[in-house]
Model the fold of this input.
Amino acid sequence: AAVDSDGPAAKAGIKPGDVITSVNGTSTPTTAALAAVLAELKPGDTAKVAVTHADGTKSTATVTLGELPGS
Done:
């Protein structure tokens, strides 16, 4: 998936090639699982996101959710 350069993920340091492995402590092993967790949240909510970066390092970030473009 793409990372919008002006979006909440980019502002939290998430880059193309990074993999979100959990949101608020809930494992997100698939894009469907990630979508299900995010669907429970609304724009303006904050979420603690665990990320495995393309180089193999891991980090966590707090992301304030935005609205999907076009919604």
Summary: The longest helix spans residues 31-39. DSSP finds two helices and four strands in the chain. The longest strand covers residues 46-52.
